[in-house]
């Protein structure tokens, strides 16, 4: 079996990456394969405590809690009653999927993003075991740390093609455009898109930083989603610009989706990216 890390790599292009904050710089001296799990877990929990005291966290908590607690607007859609109903404990967001987190043992930005994920799960009352994480950058030590925290570590490269069969938070911090596009393609229907809540890069921001003609050609699902999704921009303090810049809560109200012609949803073609010169994920090799 091949190493999933060789199959897929996520390139995180952070806005303002050249202006690294001194407060977030640490020497990368630890060996990922020889992590002290206990110390690593404590460091992450200390970062959680640090973020919880930040003023901007209250704005994130309010926005995320609203997105995670409001039921999708497709109660009139056939076959989705089970997905739309709340859990026995009243939760409406039933699971979380996190892609592209990065090497949090050596990258401070990734550690802060992991800490924020833990805060959001707590705010949304999503059990840690119901959050699945994947990144080829994870070392075996980091995967052990994630499991110790209570998260579920995926081992297969899904290329972002994950179908939301129930209300799901997708946490995609500074991931490549192709991953967002793949995720949208997999859920491209009036039934599944409303089940998704994305916390990640603003779709409008992605479009603004790319040549319009190329963006529409290579990332057609993001292009179409921009006109019907709702984005709520999340605040970011200047000292954490490399960590949380250009982040939004993105939802897909059914009432917006129904404005698109019915042909929009008919047999959507799988993205191929044959003309994309700067693809930000490495695709799986197809078995011959």
Helix content: 25-40%
The dominant shape is globular
Order of helices and strands: HHHHEHEHEEHEHHHEHEH
Mean model confidence by pLDDT: 81
The gyration radius over C-alpha positions equals: 19 Å
How does this model look, in words?
By secondary structure, this protein is α/β, with parallel strands linked by helices. The protein has a domain of 184 residues: Rossmann fold (3-Layer(aba) Sandwich). Helix content is 36%, strand content 11%. The chain is built from 12 helices and 7 strands. A 7-stranded mixed beta sheet has the order 3-2-1-4-5-7-6. Strand 1, helix 5 and strand 2 form a beta-alpha-beta unit. Helix 2 crosses helix 6. The chain is globular.
Summarize the structure.
The chain is α/β, with parallel strands linked by helices and 288 residues long.
Question: What characteristics describe this protein?
Answer:
288 residues; alpha/beta; Rossmann fold; seven-stranded mixed sheet; 12 helices; 36% helix; 11% strand; disordered N terminus
């Amino acid at each position: 079996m091949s190493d999933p890390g060789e199959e897929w790599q996520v390139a995180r292009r952070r806005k303002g990456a050249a202006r690294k904050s001194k407060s977030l710089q640490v020497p990368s001296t630890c060996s990922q394969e020889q992590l002290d799990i206990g110390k690593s877990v404590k460091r992450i929990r200390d970062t959680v405590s640090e973020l919880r005291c930040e003023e901007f966290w209250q704005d994130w908590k309010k926005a995320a809690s609203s997105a995670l607690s409001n039921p999708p607007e497709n109660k009139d859609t056939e076959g989705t009653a089970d997905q739309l109903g709340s859990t026995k404990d009243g939760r409406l967001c039933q699971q979380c999927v996190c892609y592209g987190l990065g090497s949090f043992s050596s990258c401070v930005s990734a550690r802060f993003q992991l800490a924020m994920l833990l805060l959001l799960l707590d705010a949304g009352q999503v059990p840690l075991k119901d959050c699945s994480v994947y990144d080829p950058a994870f070392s075996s030590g980091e995967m052990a740390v994630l499991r110790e925290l209570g998260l579920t570590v995926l081992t297969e490269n899904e290329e972002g093609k994950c179908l939301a069969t129930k209300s799901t938070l997708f946490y995609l911090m500074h991931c490549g455009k192709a991953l967002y596009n793949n995720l949208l393609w997999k859920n491209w229907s009036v039934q599944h898109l409303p089940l998704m809540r994305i916390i990640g890069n603003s779709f409008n921001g992605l479009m603004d930083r790319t040549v319009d003609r190329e963006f529409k050609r290579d990332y057609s699902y993001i292009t179409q989603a921009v006109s019907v999704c709702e984005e709520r921009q999340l605040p970011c303090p200047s000292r954490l610009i490399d960590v949380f810049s250009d982040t939004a809560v993105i939802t897909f109200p059914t009432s917006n989706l129904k404005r698109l012609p019915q042909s929009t949803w008919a047999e959507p073609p799988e993205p191929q990216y044959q003309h994309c010169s700067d693809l930000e994920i490495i695709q799986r090799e197809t078995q011959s």
